[in-house]
Design brief:
The complex is a heterodimer of chains A (285) and B (492). Chain A has helices spanning 2-7, 12-34, 38-58, 62-87, 102-124, 133-136, 147-156, 160-181, 193-203, 269-274. Chain A is mostly helical. In chain B, a hairpin with a 2-residue loop joins strand 3 and strand 4 (212-215). Chain B is mostly helical. Classes of the chains: A mainly alpha (285), B mainly alpha (492).
Chain lengths: 285, 492
């Protein structure tokens, strides 16, 4: 036993990592409890989980560390966050106590529970000899020469039934959630995207998007309608509930039409401004 | 594996023994490589896409415009940093950092070359390797999702939130497909360390084809083609690149998750996206394209896999992978969101699972009967692949039958070839409907929108003689049949 004890020695790097990341993990855990905003809580939890992942890596269990980060931090917490984001940004926790004395009781009970668990673990491991991961796994050059191989060997030999039962449990849970959330529809009662689009193109007056307002060079408001090639405003681009606005005509040349109408904007408006007036106007219509 | 390759090939024991200044040089080197590759990738992308669209692309800054992204980066740094009033300030600030740091971190396990000598120190051309090398890349990409999701949430605005939600769902689902596609590589290589995966692709794939013995390809892209294809598709989704760029679909979500970001924070998001692209390209080269080892015609030369030369082959492979990214962007339209998720969950993940099963079975069989992986690929893989491809071809032809016939009919002049019956009109609630367009021709009888038949193009003022272009003539609609002239006067 003393040999093994001597073999397990905590290096400087490991100690430094522990004393740097330990407080960070603890701060994350406390922040998770005390943060008012649900998303902030989730982020503090992510922080703690990341720190745990690094701890695993430092303690020569790199596979466990990577899985901790990929599965818990990367997938499960993202799904948590996904739901929390849908709740809305401003929904902070209410500070009103619905049960009187609830907070004090929760604090006392929480601290007491933590104390009990901590003391229990401390007592149980007080004089336990430290074997080290290397020895547990069979040592270098032993049955398994590495963390990944050791885990794989144990998982697929001694713990195979537990592993299979756990996966069955997870699949059952996933299928159950799908069954509960699934809405059975009569086959054919719902038009597919293809049918909907075909129906829209075949029957609607205007299958494509309506033209946008005339936010071009001379106006900056949705009240300014878009213009057709002949310069008249496009009625389809009128914004709902806003009086269409007359936009300034283009410089010099003057506008012949005066106001909106099929003829407005023709004459020598834009072409006049460009300096060539030949070939426009009357010849077109 | 030849003796020469064996001496140069770093093993896991070679890592973690460097002098501190070598580590510093490597860290700075990796950072520099990524930043330079980002600057290069942006210009490269703009140039290539411009070429594909018959434009010239950026051509003002520097020689032939190659310093454009440097100028853009400097410009971004000097722009005003806007903090939206509704933003959640700490999270808004952290998000771009969270997106960027894992992107850089992931590249640390990519092997850039064999053992080289830096100032007299023998060291592998790779920052660090671990028994779980590739999992570090996966962990980093998992962390990178947080940056995008939090950026979308913290902006306090609708479009970024939608972009953030989309990216959360998208990256989690495509990460599964990506992880599953790599499993087959782990099975074949027998390791998760990047440098050892490269070593496992070093050749030695003897093929005995009816008496003829030759070296078969040993790249996993050839031996595990399904994995490679799934990996390529999944990482395009994972890096939010077109045609899977739904989190920042500019035609739907303005800018997506980074709509509210400006200045350096936006630059960080931009940087993270391109660094991720470079990283997954490098990982594709490492896992499937033989890593830094020279491709076939070059590998005949003995010195190809020694010294600093492999850095060049590796860079070439990464640039080729980046080109594929750009090519996809220049070619494919963006998928609809539901199609995209369905593709991920119902096609990629099941295919990957079945493929892993097949690969694991073949591994066991080849071990039992003492076959080389090349023989397995040749005698089992190729026939099965032929059968599967044949079935897929027939199935897709059958599935597309209606569309194909409709296209043929349309080409022959039919306007409404497949639907004699008209489906009931779909009307949205009346309140939001704007007045119907009064001017312009009403919808033509055909059904699908066609350009106005009597469109008259006004003459260009720049034409000196003012010759009206096709005044009064009918503009071609591009259909093969003669267009029917519009019967109604457009203006009421």
């Amino acid at each position: 036993m003393t040999d093994v004890l001597a073999a397990v020695e905590i290096g400087t790097g490991e100690a430094v990592t522990f004393w740097v990341l330990g407080p960070i993990a603890l701060a994350g855990a406390l922040g998770m409890v005390f943060a008012r905003n649900a998303v902030h809580s989730a982020l503090f939890l992510v922080n703690t989980m990341l720190a745990l992942g690094v701890f695993y890596v430092v303690q020569e269990a790199p596979f466990l560390g990577a899985v901790q980060i990929i599965v818990y931090t990367g997938a499960i917490m993202i799904l948590f966050l996904f739901v929390l984001m849908l709740v809305g940004r401003d929904s902070s926790d209410s500070v009103v106590e619905t049960l009187r004395g609830q907070r004090v009781a929760a604090t006392v009970l929480g601290v007491g529970f933590a104390g009990l668990v901590g003391a229990g673990i401390a007592r149980a491991t007080q004089d336990l000899p430290v074997a080290g991961l290397e020895a547990v796994q069979g040592g270098a050059g032993g049955a398994a020469d590495g963390n990944i191989e050791a885990i794989a060997r144990l998982l697929f030999t001694r713990y195979l039934p537990a592993f299979e039962v756990t996966s069955a449990l997870l699949i059952t849970a996933a299928v159950g959630a799908m069954v509960l959330a699934h809405i059975e529809r009569e086959p054919g009662s719902r038009q597919t995207q293809k049918e909907l689009s075909r129906a829209r193109f075949l029957t609607s007056e205007h299958p494509q998007t309506l033209p946008g307002p005339g936010i071009y060079a001379r106006a900056n408001s949705i009240a300014a309608p878009g213009r057709l090639p002949d310069g008249s405003p496009s009625e389809a681009s009128f914004a709902t509930g806003v009086e269409p606005q007359v936009v300034d005509e283009l410089p010099p040349g003057g506008h012949s039409g005066g106001g909106w109408g099929p003829g407005a904007g023709r004459g020598d408006g834009p072409d006049g401004a460009l300096g060539t007036t030949r070939g426009t106007g009357g010849e077109l219509r | 594996m030849s003796v020469l390759a064996a001496t140069d090939q770093p093993t896991l024991e070679d890592f973690g023994t460097d002098v501190w200044w070598i580590v510093v040089i490597k860290v700075v080197g990796v950072f520099g490589v990524l930043v330079v590759m980002t600057l290069f990738a942006i210009v490269f992308e703009r140039k290539v896409v411009a070429r594909m669209q018959q434009r010239s692309g950026p051509n003002r800054v520097g020689p032939r415009g190659y310093l454009q992204s440097l100028a853009d980066g400097l410009k971004l740094a000097f722009k005003e940093d806007v903090m939206p009033a509704m933003a959640d300030k700490p999270v808004y600030f952290i998000a771009p950092v969270v997106a960027t740091i894992p992107a850089f971190l992931a590249f640390s396990v990519i092997p850039l070359g064999p053992e080289v000598s830096i100032f007299g120190q023998q060291t592998p051309l790779q920052l660090i390797d671990a028994p779980i090398g590739v999992l570090i890349v996966l962990a980093c990409s998992a962390m990178g999702v947080y940056g995008i999701v939090l950026g979308g949430w913290a902006s306090g605005s609708t479009y970024p939130l939608l972009g953030g939600l989309r990216s959360a769902a998208q990256m989690v689902s495509y990460e599964i497909a990506m992880g599953l596609s790599i499993v087959a590589v782990f099975l074949y290589a027998g390791t998760m360390s990047t440098s050892e995966i490269v070593a496992a692709q070093a050749g030695g794939n003897e093929l005995d084809f009816f008496g003829l013995t030759f070296q078969g390809p040993s790249w996993y892209a050839v031996l595990l083609p399904v994995s490679f294809v799934i990996y390529v598709i999944a990482v395009v989704g994972e890096t939010n690149r077109a045609p899977f760029d739904l989190p920042e679909a500019e035609s739907e979500l303005v800018g997506g998750f980074h709509t509210e970001y400006s200045s350096l924070k936006f630059a960080l998001f931009f940087l993270a996206e391109y660094v991720n692209m470079v990283t997954v390209s490098a990982l594709a080269a490492t896992l499937f394209l033989g890593g830094w080892r020279a491709p076939w015609p070059i590998s005949v030369w003995d010195g190809a896999n020694t010294g600093w030369w492999p850095l060049l082959w590796f860079a070439g492979k990464v640039v080729a992978a980046l080109f594929v990214f750009i090519w996809l962007r220049g070619t494919l339209p963006r998928l609809r969101y539901d199609q995209f998720m369905r593709f991920g969950w119902k096609v990629l993940v099941p295919t990957a699972l079945v493929w892993i099963l097949a690969v694991a079975t073949m591994r066991t069989v080849s071990r039992e009967y003492d076959l080389s992986s090349g023989e397995v690929a040749l005698y089992v893989g190729v026939p099965i692949a032929a059968v599967v491809l044949g079935v897929l071809l027939v199935a897709s032809r059958r599935a597309n039958r209606d569309t194909r016939i409709a296209a043929l009919n349309a080409a022959a002049g039919s306007i409404n070839p497949t639907e004699p019956e008209v489906l009931p009109p779909v009307r949205t609630a009346g309140a939001r409907r704007r007045p119907a367009q009064r001017s312009g021709p009403a919808r033509a009888e055909g059904g699908f929108p066609i350009p106005p038949m009597d469109l008259v193009v006004p003459p260009s003022p720049r034409l000196g003689d003012g010759e009206p272009v096709a005044a009064g003539s009918v503009v071609s609609t591009g259909r093969r049949s003669r267009p029917t002239p519009a019967t109604e006067e457009p203006d009421a």
